[in-house]
Each structure stands twice: as C-alpha cells, then as structure tokens.
C-alpha cells in the first residue's frame, strides 16, 4: 500500500499510528508530498480530487481518503473492531472523540494557513480568533474526558491533534489550564506507535 505523506500532518500521523497499533506499518510505503491549498500537488490530485493528505493506494489499486476512512479500512484488514470498537457505547465514544480531535486539527490547519500563507493585508483576525476558540473549547472538553488506558481511534486522534498543537501552536500553551490532558499525553506518547511518528521539530 502507498500512503501520501508529510511528517507535519496530524491526519497522516493518525493513519500511521493506527497502522502501527495494528501491526500493519510494514505494509505501507510512504510517498512524501509537500502541499498547501495554494501550491497543490498534481500527482496527488489525480488520486484524491480534494488534493489533501492522507490518501492511500491499496494493494488492488483503490484510492481511499480521508483519515477516518483509511483508518477504518486498516482496522478491517486487521480483522475489524480493534481500533474502531464494535457497535455499542464504546464505539460512539470513540467516533465522537475522533470527530472532536479532527475538528481541532481542521481548525488548527486552517489557522496555520491563514497565519502563514495569506498575504498580510488580507488576514482576518476575527476569523482566526474564531478558529482558536474552537480549539480552546474542545481542549477544555477533553480535560474532562476519561482517556486513561483507552487505545482506539478516539484517543489516537486526540494524541495526534495535541501533537500538532505542540508542533505549530506551542505559544498557545494548551497545557497550562489542562493538567489532566497534559499528563495523559505524556503517558500515551511513550507508546511505540506515537514515538515512531512524532513530527520533527520545526
Ligand atoms: O488543504 C489542502 O489543500 C492541503 N492540506 C492537507 O492536505 C492537510 C494536510 S495537514 N490535510 C487535511 O486537511 C486532511 C483532512 C481530512 N479531513 C482527513 O484526512 O481527515 C498539513 C498540516 C501542516 O502542514 O501544518
């Protein structure tokens, strides 16, 4: 399988952590791409019309995107209901947490593009503040979640979202008012899957 990849992308990291947890990382070949909405990657766009990573070319030539779909596909290859819990309360919790973490990543990536790509004179402060409010409110909600000892698509996504904030928004200091979440991340980051996929310091 071939995965379009960039080490900074928290969505790609979700896929890689999932593959690692399922014992499938050896079957994934990484194809490195650099892209933004204003400098798309043509080869990628031929496979994913949205021009976003991650995108996965499976063994039979099928292309899958986005990260929730790819992660669920990998789970099915590993027998199913390992990273995505079986139908029931745990599954809804995991899916909701994935949605919350993906929402943090979406808001953070959009803010990053606003702050680094958009010409200075076109920047819209209130819009960026609105995205940051989503991130902060979501982090406050996560501070009250019981994440200890749970490894599923929900907690994997949360760890990747927090890792991206550390990479791109270190000045935000998200740990200050969220000690429980910070302690959870410190512990879970020791797992080989997360340690092996930590984004490079930039
Ligand atoms: O939007 C673009 O054109 C390029 N951006 C991406 O491909 C980002 C890379 S993170 N990926 C997504 O937004 C995927 C979201 C999708 N819903 C999923 O896979 O779950 C780049 C981060 C950075 O460079 O700082």
Q: What layout of secondary structure does this protein have?
A:
Elements: E1 2-5, H1 10-21, E2 29-32, H2 42-47, E3 56-57, E4 63-64, H3 67-77, H4 89-116, H5 125-142, H6 153-168, H7 179-188, H8 192-195
Bound molecules: L-gamma-glutamyl-S-(2-carboxyethyl)-L-cysteinylglycine.
Description:
The chain is mainly α and 202 residues long. It has two domains: 2-77, Glutaredoxin (3-Layer(aba) Sandwich), CATH 3.40.30; 89-191, Glutathione S-transferase Yfyf (Class Pi), Chain A, domain 2 (Up-down Bundle), CATH 1.20.1050. The protein is built from eight helices and four strands, in the order βαβαββαααααα. It has helices spanning 10-21, 42-47, 67-77, 89-116, 125-142, 153-168, 179-188, 192-195; strands at residues 2-5, 29-32, 56-57, 63-64. It has a four-stranded mixed sheet with strand order 2-1-3-4. β3 and β4 form a beta hairpin. The radius of gyration is 17 Å and the shape is globular. The two termini are 28 Å apart. The structure holds L-gamma-glutamyl-S-(2-carboxyethyl)-L-cysteinylglycine. L-gamma-glutamyl-S-(2-carboxyethyl)-L-cysteinylglycine binds at residues 8-9, 11, 35-37, 51-54, 66-67, 102, 109, 112, 168.
In a few lines, what is going on in this structure?
By secondary structure, the chain is mainly alpha-helical. The protein is 52% helix and 6% strand. α1 (10-21) packs parallel to α3.
Strand content: 5-15%
> What is the residue-averaged pLDDT?
97
Strand order of the largest sheet: 2-1-3-4
Give the CATH architecture of the largest domain.
Answer: Up-down Bundle
Which fold name is given in CATH as the topology of the largest domain? Glutathione S-transferase Yfyf (Class Pi), Chain A, domain 2
Please give the share of residues in helix: 40-55%
């Amino acid at each position: 399988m071939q995965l379009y990849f960039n080490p900074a992308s928290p969505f790609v990291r979700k896929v890689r952590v999932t593959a690692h947890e399922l014992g499938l990382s050896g079957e994934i070949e990484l194809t490195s791409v650099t892209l933004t909405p204003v400098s798309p990657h043509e080869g990628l766009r031929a496979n994913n019309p949205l021009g976003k990573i991650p995108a996965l070319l499976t063994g039979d030539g099928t292309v899958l995107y986005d990260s929730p779909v790819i992660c669920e596909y990998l789970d099915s290859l590993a027998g199913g209901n390992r990273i995505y819990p079986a139908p029931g309360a745990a599954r809804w919790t995991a899916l909701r947490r994935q949605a919350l973490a993906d929402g943090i990543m979406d808001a953070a990536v959009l803010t990053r593009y606003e702050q680094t790509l958009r010409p200075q004179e076109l920047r819209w402060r209130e819009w960026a503040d609105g995205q940051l409010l989503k991130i902060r409110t979501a982090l406050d909600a996560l501070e009250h979640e019981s994440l200890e000892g749970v490894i599923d698509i929900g907690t994997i996504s949360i760890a990747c979202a927090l890792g991206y904030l550390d990479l791109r928004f270190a000045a935000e200091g998200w740990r200050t008012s969220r000690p429980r979440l910070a302690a959870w991340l410190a512990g879970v980051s020791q797992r080989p899957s997360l340690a092996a996929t930590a984004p490079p310091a930039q």
